Amino acid sequence: MIIGVNLGGTTCSVSRADDSGCIESTIAFPTGSVSSTLEAVREATASLAPGPAPRFGIACGGPLDSAAGLILSPPNLPGWDRVPIVAWLVEHFGGQGYLMNDANAGALAEWQFGAGQGTQSMVFLTHGTGLGAGLILDGRLYEGTTGDAGEIGHVRLAPTGPIGYGKEGSCEGFCSGGGIARLAAGRIPGHPSPDAKEVARLAAEGVPEALAILQESGRWLGRTLAIIIDLLNPEMIVLGSIYTRSGQWLEAAMREELAREALPVPLAACRIVPSALGESLGAQAAVTVALYALPAPN
Q1: Which regions in the chain score pLDDT beneath 50?
Q2: Looking at residue 298, what is its pLDDT?
Q3: How far is Cα 241 from Cα 247, in angstroms, rounded to an integer?
Q4: pLDDT digit string (tens) for 146-167?
Q5: What is the pTM of this model?
Q6: CATH number, domain 2-101+280-293
Q7: What are the sequence ranges of the domains in the chain?
Q8: What is the rounded CA–CA span in Å between residue 111 and residue 105?
Q9: Fewer CB within 10 Å, N or C, the chain?
Q10: What integer pLDDT is reported at residue 148 of this predicted model?
Q11: CA 190 from chain center: how many Å?
Q12: Which fold has domain 115-276?
C-alpha cells in the first residue's frame, strides 16, 4: 500500500495507491497552519485505511532535508520550520516514508506516467504557487550534492520586480502563481488583489489588464526557459499548473522571448509542453516518491 502526501503552498492532498502506483483514491484540502494541515493529513490518511505497513511518499517544496525527513522553512509554507514529517507519519501509522522536493517528484511522475515518457533528458517546472525544476538527465533523476538542484525560481532575472523565493526580480517572482498575483496587485480595476486563477479567469473574459499581466509573465517565463535550454539542452520541458490553465495567454510572449534569448539549435530540439497529468499531478508525484525511494514488498 502506498500513501502519497502532497504538501502544496495552496492545496494539499493525500492519496492511496496500489504497489504499481495506480491511484485509487485522493482527498484534497486547503493548506492551513502547520497544526491544522497536519491534522487534516492525519484524518485523510486514516480514512484511506493505510494498513499496518504503508509506504509514504511525501512531496513538498524545498528547502528540505530529505535524508532526515525534515521540512526546512519553504518560502511558500510559512511556519513549517524543521517539521519532521516522515517521523510524524511513521509514528502515527507505521511503515516507512520518504520526503522529496515537489519539483523532483513532479519530474519523476511526468517521466514515468505523463508527458515525459520515453525521454532521456527532461526538465519539469512546477509552475504553481512557487517555481522549481526537477531534472531528468541522461535517464535518471539528478538531485545535486545537497538535493537542491533545479531551484530555478531563486535565479534573479532583473534587479527589481516581484519578490519570489525571497529574492526581488527572481524567476519565481515573475513566473509563479504567487508572482502573477504580485504582478496583478492594483492593476485590474475592481479586482485589487486577484490570485493567479482569477487573473486567468479575467483574461478568458477578455479583460485587457489581465491579458497584459499574463503576457508580461509569459515574457519572463520565456527568459527562464531560455536559461534552462542553453544550460541543459533537454529534449523536453514540461510545465505544471499555471501553464496547464493559462498557457494560451502565456505562450505567444514566451515563444517570442525564447526566440530572442535561447540558442537556436537546442531550442529547436526541445519540446515545451503542458503537464499531461494535469490536476492529478500533485497526487501522482507524491505516490511516485514512494515508488522511487522505497522498495516494494516481496
Answers
A1: none
A2: 67
A3: 10
A4: 888 999 999 999 999 999 988 9
A5: 0.92
A6: 3.30.420.40
A7: 2-101+280-293, 115-276
A8: 10
A9: C
A10: 86
A11: 30
A12: Nucleotidyltransferase; domain 5 (3.30.420)
The residue behind cell 502515527 is: 92
pLDDT for 10 equals 86
Domain 115-276 in the same topology as domain 2-101+280-293: yes
Q: Are 277 and 17 in contact (CB under 8 A)?
A: no
Task: Give the residue among 50, 54, 66 at the shortest CA–CA distance from 103.
Answer: 66
- CB neighbour list of residue 295: distance below 8 Å, 6 or more residues apart: none
